[in-house]
């Protein structure tokens, strides 16, 4: 939208990224030749007071913070009434992108990254500023490894694409502290420390501490759930780092480290302790290496020393040949010793770790073949891997039994993925694979099993989503349109609200499984009214089941829509004037649009066929 525009001395070159609140562009300062980043309020939101205030707040926060690990603000302004502020340009990528590329990071890299994040947080906390949305996508890393903390706009409250709850997505919820999940108003800096613990956990293991199907379940896990220690998944994590991450993830803020500076110091101490351990280990190894290892070595060394001490007899011309003979004999002895050592090693049984690593290598070999022209070839190394892993599990108290079970589960998921590939072969429409016959049922069962039994970032699940998205995402979107009468034409009476609930569930599934698809991006514009309807239904259900009166919304359109829906449950006819008044109301603020559109949709529904239909049995 702003590419090629000239703002003062800044020439806008290209878009870097966009979110719910605004879009960031790269621009060049023609005075200095330096790049900067310019963040504009999203089109159509400049008149939204709440968003404008948040935008201004982010600019003011950045103005206060001067730290090498926090993106620096340069200036602010307006371009044709659109507010913007200029920031330091970070030439790098987000930690989320880095994780996507590498899976996980070595613990020593995580320590250096963690120290920089902790330093940035401590600086912000000293100004009384709590970030509240710390996550890998808000952390940039430059080409030389410097971390830059970004996004002080509390973007989690502005996720317009959220279907399950206003102001929060599953992605953001995964990093929230227990006190955030419980709605505590007076958050302290220790909330950011918990989020830092989640980030470090993910950097170390490539996975989050908790996985859930929806936001509320994620909240409950943060508040009451338990997680596996990072070292459960990555064996070489130092015990001190393992413990520090677990302390950061304590439910009780008082049990977390005192402040971010203490975390930074603790991370440096971990590095020093590991260095000290390595130094001691090298010193011991050096001393052992200097000692002769066998009696043959000692005898060979003694022979050589003795030969040096021996006085040469006068007039003996063959001293060179004698020395050569001695050295040859010693060399043959050492060679013989080496052969003996090799034979001993060859016949020695594998250690438990060697057993597991051999099987793991076979599993990984099969994983690579999944992306080849012949993915079914993965079954060859997997067959051998399965035999070896089963042997490990058959041994009582094997130290790698848990890891062996994980590898078996990975291959099991891989088998389901291969079945999906076979079913999808030469298919161009979801209806061709999700048929009503036995093969279609097996296909759907396989899809559901993969998505239900494994976390979203599981390597096999990621591959499966990539293959399913081109067919499944368009189907889910078009079905939601059909169920809500959005496909055009005069649709006769439809089963309200059961059809709408089905449509909402399909859209939620679309957003959870295929968030990057074109159809998922169209949800906020096409189905914002359906999201509003679901939110209103949940309010009334909660009020009916708990007996606690609902808290009136600050947004008048939302209040009126919920009131009209409550009246309609008792009297369809009495609700119609309320819907009509709301439907004809002009949009004053962007937040009102979904509720006004909901009223317009409610008026399109045909009246009940009889008085008995007013009390619909499927109404919650």
Description of the structure:
The protein has 620 residues and is an alpha+beta fold. It has four domains: 6-88, 2-Layer Sandwich (Phosphorylase Kinase, domain 1); 92-276, Orthogonal Bundle (Transferase(Phosphotransferase), domain 1); 352-471, no CATH class; 480-614, no CATH class. It has helices at residues 49-64, 95-102, 107-126, 170-173, 178-181, 190-205, 215-224, 239-248, 260-290, 295-309, 319-347, 352-369, 379-394, 401-424, 430-433, 438-453, 459-483, 498-513, 518-546, 556-570, 572-583, 593-604; strands at 6-7, 10-18, 22-29, 34-41, 73-79, 82-88, 92-94, 139-142, 147-149. The strands form two sheets. It has a six-stranded antiparallel beta sheet with strand order 1-2-3-4-6-5, covered by helices on one side. A three-stranded antiparallel beta sheet has the order 7-8-9. Strand 2 and strand 3 (22-29) form a beta hairpin. Helix 12 runs antiparallel to helix 13 and helix 19 (518-546) crosses helix 20 (556-570). The radius of gyration is 33 Å and the shape is globular. The two termini are 45 Å apart. The model is unreliable at 155-171, 286-293, 311-315 and 611-620 (pLDDT under 50).
SSE inventory with pairings:
Layout (H helix, E strand, L loop, with lengths): L5 E2 L2 E9 L3 E8 L4 E8 L7 H16 L8 E7 L2 E7 L3 E3 H8 L4 H20 L12 E4 L4 E3 L20 H4 L4 H4 L8 H16 L9 H10 L14 H10 L11 H31 L4 H15 L9 H29 L4 H18 L9 H16 L6 H24 L5 H4 L4 H16 L5 H25 L14 H16 L4 H29 L9 H15 L1 H12 L9 H12 L16
Features:
620 residues; alpha+beta; Phosphorylase Kinase, domain 1; Transferase(Phosphotransferase), domain 1; 4 domains; six-stranded antiparallel sheet; three-stranded antiparallel sheet; 22 helices; 9 strands; globular
């Amino acid at each position: 939208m702003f590419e090629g525009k000239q703002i003062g001395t800044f020439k806008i070159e290209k878009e870097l990224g966009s979110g719910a609140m605004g879009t960031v562009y790269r621009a060049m300062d023609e005075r200095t030749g330096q790049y900067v980043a310019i963040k504009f309020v999203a089109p159509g939101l400049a008149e939204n007071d709440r968003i404008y205030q948040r935008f201004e707040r982010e600019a003011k926060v950045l103005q206060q913070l001067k730290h090498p690990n926090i993106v620096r603000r340069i200036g602010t302004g307006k371009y044709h009434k659109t507010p913007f502020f200029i920031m330091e340009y970070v030439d790098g990528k987000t930690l989320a992108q880095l994780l996507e590329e590498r899976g996980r990071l070595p613990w020593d890299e995580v320590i250096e990254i963690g120290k920089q994040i902790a330093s940035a947080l401590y600086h912000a906390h000293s100004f009384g500023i709590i970030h509240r949305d710390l996550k890998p996508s808000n952390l940039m890393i430059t080409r030389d490894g410097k971390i830059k903390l970004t996004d002080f706009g509390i973007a989690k409250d502005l996720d317009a694409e959220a279907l399950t709850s206003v102001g929060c997505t599953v992605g953001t919820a995964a990093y929230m502290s227990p006190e955030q999940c419980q709605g505590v108003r007076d958050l302290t800096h220790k909330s950011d420390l918990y989020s830092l613990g989640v980030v470090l956990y993910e950097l170390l293991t490539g996975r989050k501490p908790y996985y859930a199907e929806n936001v509320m379940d994620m909240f409950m896990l943060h508040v009451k759930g338990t997680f596996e220690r990072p070292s459960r998944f990555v064996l070489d994590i130092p015990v001190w780092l393992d413990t520090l991450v677990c302390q950061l993830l304590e439910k009780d803020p008082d049990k977390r480290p005192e402040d971010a500076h203490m975390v930074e110091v603790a991370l440096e101490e971990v590095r020093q302790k590991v260095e000290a351990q390595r130094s001691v280990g090298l010193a011991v190894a050096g001393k052992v290496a200097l000692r002769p290892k066998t009696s043959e070595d000692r005898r060979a060394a003694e022979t050589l020393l003795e030969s040096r001490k021996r006085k040469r007899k006068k007039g003996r011309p063959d001293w060179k040949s004698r020395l050569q003979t001695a050295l040859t004999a010693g060399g043959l002895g050492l060679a013989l010793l080496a052969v003996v050592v090799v034979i001993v090693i060859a016949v020695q049984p594998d250690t438990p770790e060697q057993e597991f690593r051999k099987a793991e290598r076979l599993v990984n070999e099969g994983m690579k073949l999944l992306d080849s022209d012949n993915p079914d070839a993965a079954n060859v190394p997997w067959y051998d891997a399965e035999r070896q892993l089963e042997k490990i599990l058959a041994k009582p108290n094997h130290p790698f039994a848990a890891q062996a079970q994980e590898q078996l589960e990975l291959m099991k998921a891989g088998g389901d993925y291969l079945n999906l590939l076979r079913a999808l072969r030469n298919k161009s429409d979801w209806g061709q694979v999700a048929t009503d016959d036995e093969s279609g049922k097996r296909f759907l069962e396989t899809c559901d099993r993969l998505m239900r039994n494994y976390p979203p970032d599981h390597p096999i699940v990621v591959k499966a989503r990539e293959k399913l998205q081109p067919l499944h995402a368009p189907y889910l979107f078009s079905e939601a349109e059909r169920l809500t009468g959005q496909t055009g034409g005069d649709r006769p009476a439809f089963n309200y609200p059961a059809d709408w609930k089905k449509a909402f569930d399909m859209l939620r599934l679309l957003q959870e499984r295929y968030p990057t698809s074109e159809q998922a991006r169209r949800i906020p514009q096409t189905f914002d009214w359906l999201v509003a309807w679901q939110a209103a239904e949940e309010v009334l259900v909660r009020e009916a089941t708990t007996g606690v009166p609902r808290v009136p919304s600050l947004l008048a359109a939302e209040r009126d829509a919920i009131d009209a829906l409550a009246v309609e449950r008792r009297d369809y006819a009495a609700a119609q004037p309320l819907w009509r008044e709301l439907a004809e109301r002009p949009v004053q603020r962007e937040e009102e649009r979904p509720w006004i559109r909901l009223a317009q949709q409610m008026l399109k529904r045909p009246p009940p066929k009889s008085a008995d239909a007013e009390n619909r049995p499927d109404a919650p």
